[in-house]
Every structure is written in C-alpha cells, then in structure tokens.
Amino acid sequence: MTEGRIHGDVASGLEPVADAFRANFRKRGELGAAVAVYRDGKCLVDLWGGIADRRTGTPWQRDTVVPVFSTTKGLAGLAMSHAHARGLFDYEAPVARYWPEFAQAGKEAITVRQLLAHQAGLVAIDTPMPLEVLADPDRRDASLASQRPNWKPGERHGYHAGTIGLYQAALLRRCDTRGRGVRDYFADEIAKPLGLEFWIGRPRELGAERVAQMRFVPPLTLPRMPLRFALNFVNPRSLLARAALGSGLRLSDLSSPLFWEVEQPSGLGIGEARAIARAYAEFAAGSPVLGVGRATLDALEQPAQSPRGGELDLVVHAMSRFSLGFMKPCGALPWSRSHRPYGMAGAGGSFGFADPDLDIGYAYAPNRIGIHLVDDPRERALRQAVYRCLGA
After folding, report:
1. Range of 173's domain?
2. Is the pTM of this model over 0.85?
C-alpha cells in the first residue's frame, strides 16, 4: 500500500486500521508514526508514514526507529518475565534474597512482586545520581540499595517513572548466571531469537539517518493536562516532580551520547513499532519461540493484585493498575474489558501490549509528543479500529 505519505500493508478485514492511520494525519496532527499488529507470528498490520525529521523533511521509512520512552518498561517487563520462566527468581520472594544490599532503610521485606507492581515506594532517588553514576552499574546499584521508601511497601502504589527499570536491572544482574542486566538480557533472550530491531539504550552502530527526531510539547501545553497532575509536576517537593526530575541529571546530559547509551529500562528504548508488537505477540500466543512456560504466562494474565490502600496512584493521582512490570486495563486506560492483557504506554502517545484473548501483540509509536498522559487520541483510534476489525 502506498497512498500519499502512508505506506505498508494490512491483512484482509483490517482496512479500517489503515483508514484510522490516515485520519491521524488529516485530523489529529500526526507528524510521523508507525503501527503494527502481530498474531501467531504473522503480521496483520504494518503501517508507517509521515515525516521522520521535521527540520529536514526526511520521510518516515520502513526501517525508521523511534524512541518510545516509558513504553520501554513493557519490553523490560518481558525480559523479567522470561527470566522468571527460567527460574531465576520467585515473584513472592523478598528482593533481598537475591540482592542482600537491598535490605536497607526498611526494604528487607519488599517482594519481587511488590517491586514490579510499583508498590515498593521507591519512586524517587534522594542521593544525586549524575550521568557518570547512572552509567556505572556498581555505583548506581549502591545508590538504589540505600534508598528509603516513600511509603510503607505494599500499602499503596505509585508510578515508579524513572526508577523501576533501574531496580529491575539491578535485581536481574544478581539473578542471571551471566550477570546480565535488563538491556543485555533482552537483547540476548528476546530480540535476537525473534530478529527484533529494538534496543534498550541506543547502540553506537545505529545510524542517525534511521532515527526519527522527536517533536516535543511546548511548555504552554502543560496547563492542558489534568490540573492535579500539572500542579504536582511544577511542585518540586511532590512525588511526581521528584520521580521525574530528581535524579541529579543535568539538562546538558540529555545531549550527551553517553546518556542515550546507558542502561535505563524505564525509558531509554528505541526501535521499530513492529518489533514491539512482535515481542508482545510472542507472549500473547503462548511464546512458542521463546519457550516461556504456562506458569509465567498465567501469572501475567491474572488480575493485578492491588495494594491494601486501593488503586489511587500516589504519583500521578489517577486510578491505575500495575502487575509484574506492566500496566493492566484500568479506568485511565481501559483498552480491554478483560483482565488478561498487559502492556505499557509511554510519554507522548506510544503504546504496546499483549492481548491473550485475541493472541495479538500491538504497538504504536509516533515522533510528535502528545499531551495526554495515556490514551492518546491518535493511538486510541488505531487500537479501537483493531479491536472492531477483530470482533472484540
């Protein structure tokens, strides 16, 4: 299919997804984007189009890759799930069983399940972690281990925006027989077997000509976000501001090549939408290639175990559900009526998930950063078209 700036293919019966993709450019201000759906190893939707670099007018190509920010957390979750299936850790065990130094400052009883469900209270890093520390796993992990929880673990939950991936990497390094963190584990055990063009941390060999340039939201759009979120974002003492801005990084670090190369599974992922969809589809279909066992898949598909204090997220101040490293369908992002799907949305509109009810993996990735926390209208139009076409 080639029509104007839109390219790719859809399987018979999914033509409305292509219509919704075109409409995003006509009606919803899309700049450049890609969307993909896989089922049983087959690509049902593979669409891309628009502009990859607004400054040069470079078109989005089939092999264009794009940063997806917190959608990266879902790929990290798949890596942790694969490791669980290999028996490297028990969800119900204390993190300190595998990482003894973690048992500081009231964290000795935090379980792996609580950590992965954003219930550990470790949303901020009080000890400054500049780029040179973030890039050094030993120094980074020592800082993480010393952190005191912001609430009693297991009592409440809150989005660990910048920290969850770092804690996952530290835990996995101590469980894996080869000492790999999330970045290398994902590359070896998921990306390589499936032939995926997705990386946690930008590889040096990735050419700049393949990377979509992000168009960020102007600061004046902040008031258009939910009022309580906006107020907490600009309050430096709030958990949200501390989670988002309090790591000790400098603004100049964001332009450093080292920053984009560090292992930060919370948000520094880059790759193709079809790679994200393919990875999720592998799990949704029972993981025939990766060999993830039914016990792990059943755990992923179970309803989220909400904390004792309820589902109000103490960081973003919205109702949310997290389980084993993923978001689950909830009021803020009701993408399914079933409890079985799992995935993760990212800042700006990207979203990837597995739906075991339909055996599909889905992903959308744009380069214009939207202003919605989740459920971006561009992504929602595509997702709803997919579900209508598949009869769900």
Report:
1. 64-273+286-376
2. yes
Q: Which residue has the tokens 């009810």?
A: 357
Alpha-carbon span 171 to 182, nearest angstrom: 9
- Residue-by-residue DSSP string for 224-281: GS-HHHHHHHT-TTSHHHHHHHTT---GGGGG-HHHHHS--TTT-EEE-HHHHHHHHH
CA–CA separation, 48 and 66 (whole Å): 12
Q: Work out the burial of residue 88: count CB atoms within 10 Å of its CB; fewer than 13 is exposed, 13-18 middle, 19 or more buried.
A: middle
Specify if 33 maps to a domain.
no
Residues 6 or more apart in contact with residue 255 via CB below 8 angstroms: none
Domain-located, residue 261: yes
The residue among 190, 170, 189, 192 whose CA lies nearest residue 181 is 170
Confidence of residue 370 (pLDDT cuts 50, 70, 90): confident
Is residue 179 domain-resident? yes
Q: What is the CATH number of the domain that holds 155?
A: 3.40.710.10
